[in-house]
C-alpha cells in the first residue's frame, strides 16, 4: 500500500522541498506518496492554487544555481501531488482521508502557524471546524483514533526550535480544551510521533498558479526518535541524532544574514523589488555583511565549538546569496520581520553570550534593540 502523505500548507517552499523529494523518490521506484495538499484557511474558490494541485501533469520546479562549482539549470514536473483540498470546503473528505489513509503528515504553516484561538477552536459532534491549524490537527487526530487508532508520523517543517515538541503540546492543549478523554491522550503519546525537523532551501520565485524556482542546495534534517522514520530515501533528507548544529548554522548564518539585509533594505528605503543578489551588488552593503559575519557571528560559533563548521557554512551561504540564477526578493524575506529578529538575532546573541563570545556584536545588538522581545519596537 502506498504511503499517503497529507501536507498542510500550499507554500511554494514545500512545492520545491518535501513534495519535490517525494517526486524524485517515486521516480526512483520507491513506494511513497501520493501527497494531498491542504489549504488550511480560506475557501478554495478564492485560490486557483488549490485546484491546480489536481493537475495529473504536475507542476514545474526549476532548479537553478551552482553545485560543486558547476552550473545547474533544470526543470522538473513534480507529480507526487494528486490533489489539493481546502480544510474549510472539504472537511469531511479530509477527515476520512486523515483517519483511514494517511501515513505521514507534513506541515509548513509559516512563522506564526501554531497560534490558536480558544474561542474559535472548538470541535465536536456538531461538525464545527476549528480555526487554528493545531486545533484542526487535534480534531483530525481524534477522528483517526476513533476510526482506526493506527500509528501516525507528523513531520512539521515550520522553522522553530523543537517544532515537533511545540506542535505536540499545542495539539494536546487544544484537545484538552475540547474535553477529550485520557484514552485519546494515551494513544497520542504512544502512537503518534511528532518529529523535530529542520528544512533548508532557498525558494525564490513562484510559478503561477503553482510551481517554483529554487536553488540546488537542499536539506531536510529529521531528528531520530521512537516512531520516527524517513518518509522516503533521498540525498537531501538526513536522519540525525542532533538537530542543533544544523539549526544553529541555518538560523544564525543564512537566516540571520537574510534578516540583516531585510533590516538594511527597510531602513534605507531601497527599491521595492530588490533582490538579495542586487542588494549585495552594493559594495558597501556587501562589506557590512562580510564584516558582520567575521566580527560578530563567527566569534559566537567559535565560542560554542563550531568555528570551522561556521566558517565553511558562511562561504556556502555567500555563494547561495549570490546565485546568478535566483531572484530572491528582500520584500519576501522581510515578512514577519520582528518575529524573525527574535529567533535569528536575539537568540543568537543569547547563545553567543552564554558561551563567552569574544565579540560585543554591536551591529546585531543595535538591530535587536529596535525589536525588543516584548514586541514594542523602538
From TrEMBL:
What are the Mannitol dehydrogenase C-terminal domain coordinates in residue numbering?
A: 242-357
- InterPro entries the UniProt entry points to: 6-PGluconate_DH-like_C_sf (IPR008927), 6PGD_dom2 (IPR013328), Mannitol_DH_C (IPR013118), Mannitol_DH_N (IPR013131), NAD(P)-bd_dom_sf (IPR036291)
Q: Which Pfam families match?
A: Mannitol_dh, Mannitol_dh_C
Q: Supply one GO molecular-function term.
A: oxidoreductase activity
**Would the keyword NAD turn up in this protein's UniProt record?**
yes
Supply the SUPFAM superfamilies for this chain: 6-phosphogluconate dehydrogenase C-terminal domain-like (SSF48179), NAD(P)-binding Rossmann-fold domains (SSF51735)
Gene3D superfamilies tied to this protein:
N-(1-d-carboxylethyl)-l-norvaline Dehydrogenase, domain 2, NAD(P)-binding Rossmann-like Domain
Q: Which UniProt keywords apply?
A: NAD, Oxidoreductase
Q: What positions does the domain Mannitol dehydrogenase N-terminal occupy?
A: 4-224
> Could you identify this protein by its name?
Tagaturonate reductase
**What is the scientific name of the source organism?**
Rhizobium lusitanum
Amino acid at each position: 500500500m502506498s504511503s499517503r502523505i497529507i501536507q498542510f500548507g500550499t507554500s511554494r517552499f514545500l512545492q520545491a522541498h518535501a513534495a519535490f523529494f517525494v517526486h524524485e523518490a517515486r521516480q526512483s521506484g520507491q513506494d511513497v506518496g501520493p501527497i494531498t495538499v491542504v489549504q488550511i484557511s480560506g475557501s478554495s474558490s478564492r485560490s486557483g492554487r488549490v485546484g491546480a494541485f489536481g493537475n495529473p501533469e504536475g507542476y514545474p520546479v526549476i532548479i537553478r544555481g551552482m553545485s560543486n562549482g558547476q552550473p545547474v539549470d533544470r526543470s522538473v514536473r513534480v507529480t507526487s501531488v494528486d490533489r489539493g483540498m481546502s480544510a474549510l470546503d472539504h472537511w469531511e473528505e479530509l477527515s476520512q482521508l486523515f483517519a483511514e489513509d494517511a501515513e505521514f503528515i507534513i506541515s509548513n504553516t509559516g512563522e506564526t502557524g501554531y497560534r490558536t484561538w480558544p474561542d474559535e477552536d472548538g470541535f465536536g459532534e456538531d461538525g464545527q471546524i476549528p480555526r487554528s491549524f493545531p486545533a484542526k490537527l487535534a480534531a483530525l487526530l481524534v477522528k483517526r483514533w476513533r476510526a482506526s487508532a493506527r500509528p501516525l508520523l507528523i513531520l512539521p517543517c515550520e522553522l522553530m526550535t523543537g517544532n515537533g515538541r511545540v506542535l505536540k503540546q499545542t495539539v494536546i492543549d487544544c484537545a484538552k480544551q475540547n474535553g477529550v478523554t485520557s484514552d485519546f491522550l494515551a494513544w497520542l503519546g504512544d502512537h503518534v510521533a511528532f518529529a523535530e525537523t529542520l528544512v533548508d532551501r532557498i525558494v525564490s520565485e513562484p510559478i503561477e498558479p503553482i510551481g517554483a524556482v529554487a536553488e540546488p542546495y537542499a536539506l531536510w534534517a529529521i531528528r531520530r526518535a521512537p516512531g520516527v522514520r524517513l518518509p522516503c530515501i533521498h540525498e537531501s533528507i538526513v536522519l540525525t541524532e542532533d538537530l542543533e548544529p544544523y539549526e544553529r548554522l541555518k538560523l544564525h548564518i543564512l537566516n540571520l544574514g537574510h534578516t540583516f539585509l531585510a533590516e538594511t533594505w527597510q531602513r534605507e528605503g531601497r527599491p521595492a523589488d530588490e533582490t538579495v543578489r542586487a542588494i549585495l551588488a552594493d559594495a558597501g552593503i556587501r562589506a557590512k555583511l562580510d564584516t558582520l559575519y567575521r566580527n560578530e557571528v563567527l566569534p559566537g560559533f567559535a565560542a560554542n565549538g563550531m568555528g570551522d563548521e561556521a566558517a565553511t557554512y558562511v562561504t556556502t551561504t555567500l555563494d547561495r546569496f549570490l546565485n546568478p540564477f535566483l531572484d530572491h526578493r528582500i520584500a519576501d524575506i522581510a515578512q514577519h520581520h520582528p518575529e524573525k529578529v527574535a529567533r535569528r538575532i536575539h537568540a543568537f546573541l543569547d547563545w553567543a553570550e552564554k558561551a563567552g563570545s569574544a565579540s560585543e556584536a554591536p551591529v546585531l545588538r543595535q538591530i535587536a534593540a529596535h525589536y525588543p522581545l516584548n514586541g514594542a519596537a523602538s
